[in-house]
Amino acid sequence: KGHFPNFKIWSRAQADIDRVCAIWRDCLATSGGPFLFGKPTMADAMFAPVCTRFETYDVALSDVAQNYCRTIMSWAPMTEWIDAAKDEPDDFEELDMEF
Fold first, then answer.
1. CA dihedral 46, 61, 53, 80 (to 10 degrees)
2. Is residue 55 scored above 80 in pLDDT?
């Protein structure tokens, strides 16, 4: 539910972002896309939360990485997950416990 535009990316985080984007670029170039290995695989499922983080923190991405994130964010299992998450309450009583 969160969105943090203009979030400052730390230099060490940028190196991780660049590495992820390089993996995506190489896989998509080899497979032809739209998923990392052409059709949806567990690799795409594992990178789905990364796409949500990039969107949440408004990370600037190359066209290739941005298109891949759009593919993931519009993937049916992903849209179902997002819709279910939006229906969850903002606060969970059991998380407000004092120890």
1. -60
2. yes
